[in-house]
Amino acid sequence: MSVLGIDEITYAADDLAACRRFFADWGLTLVDESAQMLRFECLNGCRVNVAALGMPGLAEGIEDGPTLREVVWGVADDAQLARYADALAGQPGFVDGVVDGVRRIGCTDPNGLALRLQVTRKTELQLPSAVMNTWSSRERVNQPAPIYERATPIEVGHVVFFVADVAACEKFYTERLGFAASDRYPGRGAFLRCAPDGGHHDLFLLQLPSGKRGINHVAFTVRDIHEVFGGGLHFSRCGWETQLGPGRHPVSSAYFWYFKNPAGGLIEYYADEDQLTGDWQPREFEPGPTVFAEWAVDGGLDGHTRRQKNVAGPEGKFLTEKK
User: Fold this and answer.
1) Distinct helix (H) and strand (E) counts, the chain
2) pTM for this model (two decimals)
3) What is the DSSP secondary-structure string of 62-113?
4) Range from 144-153, 297-306, 310-319 that averages highest in pLDDT
């Protein structure tokens, strides 16, 4: 059995108008809208739903206020889905039904989150992306690297939750869903990927001393580092507030840019994460600022000046011009 990745997520929020602007500026396509629900799609068909906070039928939240209520994971076919139905039968909150014409099974995970699985709706994409020239490999010849005016996210790449019991959650996802451990903060955090071969993590579970449960962030995959920058600068020009970034994670090697999200938690553009196989041995890290970020810009970059926030941009046509 192997989960392919995140197929759909559902937020509950108290300001749908703000969320409509937010996710459109983020680069998602609005595909359906009603008084109580917004439906967006990424490039490969991964869905992002935003429901009104009091909408009937929503899964219970693991925290009060705007937050992520449900994560739907995709599998390859009906046979895989049937195997997961057997694996999850008897778990708390087990469901097996049809949603939007598609069979969906699931349960409540040990942290109280509504977890669902369905045959994936996402499509395979081949997208032009940057080729990096390094000292030992110079494959981009007679071709400039891309510059992006904004981001168009490919999919929801990973989700990060605060959990009350990281060991119980890791055991559930590895034993019931077949996830693989990538790296850990012993007793504090677990980076998990859907299958032995894949990106560094699809799910990160973080246990705080307080035992708080909730959403930390949802991360959207973009093509390359240049789209991280282009997307972040555009989003900054739209007036949305950076939490941290741009920057680079040492643990996964990914470049990131985090923003505050009116639907709950944070939201991230990221690219260039490590790719792992079944030969990978999980490492252990002691949490700390330099482990979280090799480097990071506090407060973000201004989309107009292209400089750190509250720093004046150059006045001449060239960076070296002086008054």
Assistant:
1) 5, 20
2) 0.96
3) SSSSSEEEEEEEEESSHHHHHHHHHHHTTSTT-EEEEETTEEEEEEE-TTS-
4) 144-153
Residues 217-246 have pLDDT tens digits of: 999 999 999 999 999 999 999 999 999 999
- What band does 320 get if pLDDT is binned at 50, 70 and 90? low
- Distance set, CA 291 to CA 109, 149, 185, 252, 296 (Å): 28, 31, 10, 10, 12
Domain ranges in the chain are 5-124+151-296
Between CA 15 and CA 221 the distance in angstroms is 25
Strand partners, 114: 70, 108
Residue-wise pLDDT for 117-138, tens only, equals 999 999 999 999 999 999 999 9
Domain spanning 5-124+151-296, CATH class: alpha beta
User: For residue 253, which of 303, 200, 301, 290 has the smallest C-alpha distance?
Assistant: 200
Residue tagged 């891309």 (tokens): 146
Cα–Cα dist 108/231, whole Å: 34
Q: Where are the beta strands (DSSP E) in the chain?
A: 5-13, 29-33, 37-41, 47-52, 67-75, 95-99, 102-108, 114-119, 155-162, 180-185, 189-193, 198-199, 203-206, 214-221, 242-248, 255-260, 266-271, 275-276, 283-284, 295-296
